[in-house]
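note to self — DONT lose this again. spent like an hour looking for the file last time. sequence + predicted structure for the chain T wanted, 179 res
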Amino acid sequence: MALESTFVPIPSEVIIPPAAYLAHTQGQLSLLGIVLSGTAGSWIGASAMYWGARWLGRPLILRLGPFIGISAAKIELAERWAARYESAGVFFSRLLPVIRHLIGIPVGILRMDFRWYALATLGGSLLWCSVLAWLGMTIGRHPELLAGSLHRFFALVLGVAVLLAALYYFFVQRPSAKR
């Protein structure tokens, strides 16, 4: 989970739900432990992104950004967005795919107070890991979801995707369209 919160493309969706599934079906892991360790790992990775961006500074980030798929225009848009929404934006960013991995860059460049960044990251990560753990536990309670009646599972995943897309539009696309 620490790597997941950096620019390394390891999605939390393939870490937390299987762990929660195993916790429910085999009892070897604690569901609370999974959520808390996932949250802590997310915080560690997100903190590394924040401090890396803060210490490297904007010029170096702009120079290195294209090598990891981050253009100057994207950094500037993210900076404006982060300056506008501050810690609330960080909280909701922790719930959005791709954005959750990179939000530390603009807030680190902007030198947002780390205490607020850390609290927002912990809160958003706790919520995200809890939802993913619930999903894994639900599949453990209802093994038929894996055995053939996947339509309910896909309906659930689709509902979550629609919610995330709405959050993405509301917090990312809409503000950038107002420029």
